[in-house]
Design a protein that fits this description.
By secondary structure, the chain is an all-alpha fold. The protein is built from 7 helices and 2 strands, in the order H-H-H-H-E-H-H-E-H. The protein has a two-stranded antiparallel sheet with strand order 1-2.
Length: about 190
Amino acid sequence: MDWKEVLRRRLATPNIGPNKKKSEQELKDEEMDLFTKYYSEWKGGRKNTNEFYKTIPRFYYRLPAEDEVLLQKLREESRAVFLQRKSRELLDNEELQNLWFLLDKHQTPPMIGEEAMINYENFLKVGEKAGPKCKQFFTAKVFAKLLHTDSYGRISIMQFFNYVMRKGDFICLNFFSGNQIGFWSMLL
C-alpha cells in the first residue's frame, strides 16, 4: 500500500476512528452554532443595548385550576375591582340628559332629513362643557370613527350618543360573564 493512497483515504474521511466519531447531537449543536454565528454576521452583528429587549414580558397567564382556590379568589376580586372602576366611569341618567341637551344645543345646520349633525369645532365645545366623565368620548379618534360621508365633515348626534350608550352597555355586560374566560369587543 502506497503512503499517498493512505493519505488520500485519510483526508477523504477524517472523522473515522475510535475517538473522533461525533454523535448526531454533537453535529446538530455544531450546526446550530455555525448557523447562529453566520446569521449574526449576516444581520450585521447588531446588539441591543437596551436591557428591555433581553426579556420578553409575559402576556398570557393560564387560568387557575380548580384546586387553586386562592388564585381563583384573587382573579375574581381583581375582576370585580376592575369592573367597579370602569362602572364609576359610566355616565348616570342626569349626565346623559345633560350630554344630550348640550349636543342638541350645539348642532350644526343643515340637518339631513330629521338627523341632527355636529361638526368637530362644536364637538370639542360640547366636550369642554360636558364634564370630566365625558372627556374620554370627545377625542379626534371617536369623531373619526363616526365620520362617514357627510360633505360638511360632521357626525350624527344620534350616532355619537348611541356610541356613548354602547360603551356603558359593554361594561355592564361584563358583569354577566360568569366563567370569565370569554371576551367582549366593541364593533366601533
